[in-house]
Design a protein that fits this description.
Blueprint (H helix, E strand, L loop, with lengths): L1 E6 L9 H15 L3 E9 L11 H7 L2 E5 L5 H7 L6 H4 L4 H13 L4 E5 L7 H7 L3 E6 L3 H11 L3 H21 L5 E4 L2 H9 L30 E4 L5 H21 L5 E4 L5 H4 L6 E5 L4 H5 L4 E4 L9 H8 L3 E4 L16 E2 L3 H13 L1 H18 L2 H12 L3
Parallel strand pairs: 1-2, 1-4, 2-3, 4-5, 5-6, 7-8, 7-10, 8-9, 10-11, 11-12
Helix pairs in contact: 1-16, 7-8, 10-14, 13-15, 14-15
Length: 397
């Protein structure tokens, strides 16, 4: 089987959930003997110099990319107000990428074109015209629900009105496009149900993000002092919104009760105000190159999302390393967890404080939750089983 994987950004380095999700499915397919070629947009926001890549990585995935500027700008956003198109999606359309895609399709015969996210769907027409490959969309999220939640949580009325407009247009586009592909691979069962309610009639197969168990050894260290950490890209609005809420509404109360407790924040795209927030027990590391290395020696992972969708890959990573996850209900969506056994759920500042206090007072309980989390992920989220599942599903199309 030959698969052409179309990506809305270069998924390297593997230091955020989106990149890990893309790489994991490519690795899962490659491990099953599938020929994978990765054709990507190289956005200005997430620009990567392919020339700096080791040759073995480039050859392994057959990576080629086309530069594009997908940044939100005032003239573009204003002009879009007078159209009925989704500004979120249209920013990812590129004539140059179309030309490169046409060249790739004419060079080889692919069985599957795997689109990583809704943002690659503007290229459906050129694929239909120039290939007999089945088009499969891997839905990292139900995109419009993220923006509906962001709008609901926004206090500024003008921003809330604009976010609501973006959400409506994105929902309209999403409803139109889901039946123009040949199949969808939702990352969670919850997303599959939403797509069905939106009127999706094409085949779907829930395909979560997998992990290579060999890369994740347990990092539970009873002798270490417990500390809290958060790892996530701050140029993804739900992450920034969640951390802002955690710092404004939760951290002062936590730090007052546990003055020696440390909070470590890391991820791409930290705004200046957040980098300057260091102090009062908070350390902002900014962008890091190795997520596993950053998590080493830290036990309590906080996931304070108030909006978002799909599945939080960082939770799966943290669980694989035996970390104790404290998450909001929204943050843990899409994962079939057992609260109190392999994760701790808290949706208010008071509940978060209570769960942290529970972990600090009973270290054995804290480490036990991390240990159960590791068992849970290794049993149900292996790349090997997910690769086989995708191949079996694609063979039915």
């Amino acid at each position: 089987m030959k698969v052409l994987q179309l990506c809305h950004r270069i998924p390297f380095p593997a230091n955020d959930g989106g990149n890990i999700a893309i790489i994991s499915v490519a690795d899962a397919l490659l491990a099953q003997g599938v020929h994978v070629k990765m054709l990507t947009l190289n956005t200005r926001k997430h620009h990567v110099d392919l020339n700096s890549f080791p040759g073995d990585i480039k050859s392994k995935y057959g990576i080629e990319s086309i530069p594009i500027d997908t940044d939100v700008n005032i003239p573009g956003a204003f002009k879009n107000l007078f159209s009925d198109q989704s500004y979120n999606v249209m920013r990812f359309h590129s004539r140059e990428f179309e030309e490169k895609l046409l060249q790739v399709l004419n060079t080889d015969n692919y069985d599957i074109v795997l689109m990583e996210s809704l943002f690659m769907t503007p290229y459906i027409p050129i694929i239909r015209k120039n290939s007999r490959a089945r088009i499969v969309m891997r839905a990292h999220n139900v995109e419009h629900t993220i923006w509906e939640r962001l709008a609901k949580n926004e206090k500024n009325i003008l921003r809330r009105t604009y976010l609501s407009l973006l959400a409506r247009r994105l929902k309209k586009y999403e409803m139109q496009i889901i039946n123009q592909v040949d199949a969808i691979l939702p990352i969670t069962g919850d997303d599959e149900q939403v797509f069905r309610k939106l009127g999706c009639t094409v085949p779907m197969n829930v395909t979560p993000v997998g992990i290579d168990a060999g890369k994740y050894s347990s990092q539970i260290m009873p002798e270490e002092q417990l500390c809290i950490f958060h790892l996530g890209a701050m140029d993804w609005r739900p992450n920034l919104e969640g951390i802002e809420w955690f710092l404004d509404d939760c951290w002062d109360m936590i730090h007052k009760k546990f003055p020696s407790l440390k909070l470590y924040l890391a991820g791409r795209g930290f705004p200046d105000w957040l980098m300057n927030r260091a102090g009062s027990g908070v350390t902002c590391a900014g962008e890091i190159m190795d997520a596993i290395e950053f998590m080493d020696g830290k036990q309590l992972m906080i996931v304070p999302l108030k909006s978002g969708g799909g599945m939080r890959v960082k939770i799966i990573q943290g669980m694989a390393l035996g970390k104790t996850i404290i998450s909001t209900t929204i943050g843990a969506e899409g994962i079939s967890y057992t609260n109190g056994k392999n994760i701790l759920i808290a949706d208010s500042p008071e509940d978060i404080l209570m769960q942290i206090e529970k972990c600090l007072d009973d270290k054995n309980l804290c480490l036990s939750i991390g240990s159960e989390a590791r068992k849970f992920v290794l049993a149900g989220y292996s790349n090997e089983s997910i690769g086989k599942q995708i191949i079996e599903f694609c063979n039915t199309l």
